[in-house]
Amino acid sequence: MSNTLTAGGSKGRTGDKVFSGLALFAGCLILFVLFCVAAFLLWQALPTFSADPADITGGEGFFSYILPIVIGTLIAAAIALLIATPVGVGVALFISHFAPRRLAQGLGYVVDLLAAIPSVVYGAWGMTVLAPALVPVYEWLAENAGWIPIFEGPASQTGKTMLTAGIVLSVMILPIITSLSREIFLQTPKLHEEAALAMGATRWEMIRMAVFPFARPGVISAVMLGLGRALGETMAVAMVLSGGALMASLIKSGNQTIAAEIALNFPEAFGLRLAELIAAGLVLFLITLAVNMVARWIISRHKEFSGAN
Amino acid sequence: MSQTTSTRSPLRKRSLTKNRLPGWALWAVLAGSVIVGAALSSLAGFHVVTWALFSAVLFVIASYAVTFAVEGRRKAADHLATSLITAAFIVAVLPLISVIWTVLEKGIPGLTYNFLFTSMNGMSGVVDNETVANGTSVLGGAYHAIVGTILITFWATLISVPVGLLTAVYLVEYSKGGALSRGITFFVDVMTGIPSIVAGLFAAAFFGLIFGPSTRTGFVAAVALSVLMIPVVVRSTEEMLKIVPNELREASYALGVRKWRTILKVVVPTAISGIASGVTLAIARVIGETAPILVTAGFVNSINWNVFSGWMTTLPTFIYRQLMNPTSPTNVEPSLQRAWAAALLLIIIVMLLNLVARLIARIFAPKTGR
C-alpha cells in the first residue's frame, strides 16, 4: 500500500513540476514577447538612423520626417480627449447616479455596444456620413471664426479633416472612459453619499463633494487609457483624414498621424522606406508605452481605496 | 413630514414649499424653448439640427434662470448639472444610432447569398462597369474574406488561449507576489495598450527577419493578433481564477490531490464559464482588427485556405479595400455595396460573440454557494 502511494506520489511530483514549469514559461514568454516587440522594431528600424539624411522621405533626415506626424498624432488625440473626457464622464455619471436604477444596466450595455463596433466600421461611417455632414459647419467656422489659426479657411470641401478625425476618435475612446469611470463612480462609499445628502446637499453637490474626490485618480487613469487608444488608433484616421503637411488649421485637408502614415504606406513600402515606417512604429510604441505606464502607475498607487484595477 | 407640519400650522407649510417650482414649470420652459428655438432656427434657414441645438441651449439657459430666480443658486446649479449630464448622454448615443442606422441601411441590400458564398476572384472593374450599365445585381462577394477571418482568428486563438491561461494560472496559483509576478501583471496591463498597428509591425518585422522581408501570410497575422489577444485572456482568466473559493482548493489538497491535478480538475472547471466568456470577448475584440492584418497578411481577391503561405484577406481589410480602392474607379457603387454588406456582417459576428459570451457567463456560472 505504501509502495503504491509513494510510486503515485513521485509520478504526481513530475506532473507538478512540469505544470508549474509550463505556467512559469508562459508568464516569462509574455515578458519575452514584449521585449521582442521593442527589440525587433529597433532592429528593423536601425537602417533609418544610419542612412544618409537626403535618402529619408522629405530629404532632411529622420527627425524632420517624424516630428510633423508626431505632432499630428498628438493633435488628433488632444481633440479626441477634449471631446470625450467631459462627455464620457457625463455619461458615466448619468448611468451611475442619474438614470433610473432599472434603466442603468441596459444603458451600460449600450455603451459596451459602442466599444464592440470594429474600428474600420467607425472609419467607414466617418468618411461617408460624418465628413460630408460637417462640411457646412466647417464653412461656417471658416467664415466666422477664420481669424483663429485653427479655423483658418478655406474649409475642406470633402470634410476629411483633422477635426473630423478627432471627432471619430472621440467616439471610439468614449466607451473606455465611460465604462472605467462608471465602475469607479459606483464604488463611491454609500455612507459618504448619504452623509452628504443628509446634510442637505443637492444631488450635484453630493457628487462634487463625495463622488469626485473619491473617483479622481480612477477618472484620470481612465482618460490616460483613452489617450493611449487614441494615439494608436489607425483605421479611423487613415480613412477619415486626407493627410498632408503639418498645418495649424484643423478644417483643411492636411496633417497626418503616425499610425495612419504606416497603414497607408506600408503595403507598398520596401527597403529604406520600410525601415522608416518601422522606426515610426517604434516611436508610436514608445509614446503609448509611456502613457500606459503612467496610467497604470496612477491606478496602482490608488489601488487600495479606489479599486480601479 | 409636510403633512404633520401642515396640520399644526398652515404657515409652516408655505415656508417649506414656497421656494419650490411647481411640477409643470420645467415642461413649460421646455415647450417655450422649443418654440423659440424653431423661430431662431428659421431665421437662419430652418434645419432640424439647428432647431434641436438652439432649443437645447435655450432650455438649459432658461431653466437655469428660472430655477435661479425661484429656488436659489444651489438648486439652479443642480438643475444645470442634471441637464448637462443628460445632454452628454444624448450626445454619446447619437453617433451609435447613426453608425448602426448607416450600416443597416447600406448593408442590408448587399447581404445576399451570392455575397456570402462567392469570392472576388476574377472581379475586375469591367465586371462592375457592366453591372452598373446593365442594372443587374452586384457580382462578387466576401467568401474569401470570411474564410480568411475564420482561419486567422482560429490560429490567433490557438496561440493565445494556452499562453494566456497558463500565465493566469502562474499568477494566481504559483507566484507568491514576487517581483516576477508583479512584473508580469504590470506588463500585461501595459500590453493591453499596445497600438494594434505596432503589434502588426512586430509580427511583420519578426517574420521578415527570419523568412526574408515582406513575408506576408495568414500565420503572421495570427501572431500579430495573438499579441493583442493574450493580455485580454490573461486579465479575464486571472479575475476568474481569483474568485474561485479557497475552500475548494483546500478540500482537494486534504484528499491528497497534487497541486497540478487540483488546478486542472477543481480550480479551472469551477472558473470555466468565466474563462470561456473572457476568451469569446477577446475573439470579438481581435476579429475586427484591420491595421495589423493590413501589414501582415496583404490582400488578395481569391480564396486561400493555407495560413502558412500566400496572402489572405479578412473582413475588415476587405471593407477597407473596397472603400478606399474601389474595384472599378469609375463606378464605385458595387464596391460600396460590398463594403457595407461586409461591415454589417462583421458587426453581426461581433455582436453574436458578445451575446454568446454573456450567455456562457450566465448559464454555466459556477455555484459558489454565495
UniProtKB/TrEMBL annotation, chain A:
<feature type="transmembrane region" description="Helical">
    <location>
        <begin position="206"/>
        <end position="228"/>
    </location>
</feature>
<comment type="function">
    <text>Part of the binding-protein-dependent transport system for phosphate; probably responsible for the translocation of the substrate across the membrane.</text>
</comment>
<keyword id="KW-0472">Membrane</keyword>
<feature type="transmembrane region" description="Helical">
    <location>
        <begin position="107"/>
        <end position="125"/>
    </location>
</feature>
<dbReference type="Pfam" id="PF00528">
    <property type="entry name" value="BPD_transp_1"/>
</dbReference>
<feature type="transmembrane region" description="Helical">
    <location>
        <begin position="21"/>
        <end position="42"/>
    </location>
</feature>
<feature type="transmembrane region" description="Helical">
    <location>
        <begin position="62"/>
        <end position="95"/>
    </location>
</feature>
<keyword id="KW-1003">Cell membrane</keyword>
<dbReference type="InterPro" id="IPR011864">
    <property type="entry name" value="Phosphate_PstC"/>
</dbReference>
<feature type="domain" description="ABC transmembrane type-1">
    <location>
        <begin position="70"/>
        <end position="295"/>
    </location>
</feature>
<keyword id="KW-0813">Transport</keyword>
<keyword id="KW-0812">Transmembrane</keyword>
<dbReference type="InterPro" id="IPR000515">
    <property type="entry name" value="MetI-like"/>
</dbReference>
<feature type="transmembrane region" description="Helical">
    <location>
        <begin position="274"/>
        <end position="299"/>
    </location>
</feature>
<protein>
    <recommendedName>
        <fullName>Phosphate transport system permease protein</fullName>
    </recommendedName>
</protein>
<dbReference type="InterPro" id="IPR051124">
    <property type="entry name" value="Phosphate_Transport_Permease"/>
</dbReference>
<keyword id="KW-1133">Transmembrane helix</keyword>
<feature type="transmembrane region" description="Helical">
    <location>
        <begin position="162"/>
        <end position="185"/>
    </location>
</feature>
<keyword id="KW-0592">Phosphate transport</keyword>
<comment type="similarity">
    <text>Belongs to the binding-protein-dependent transport system permease family. CysTW subfamily.</text>
</comment>
<dbReference type="InterPro" id="IPR035906">
    <property type="entry name" value="MetI-like_sf"/>
</dbReference>
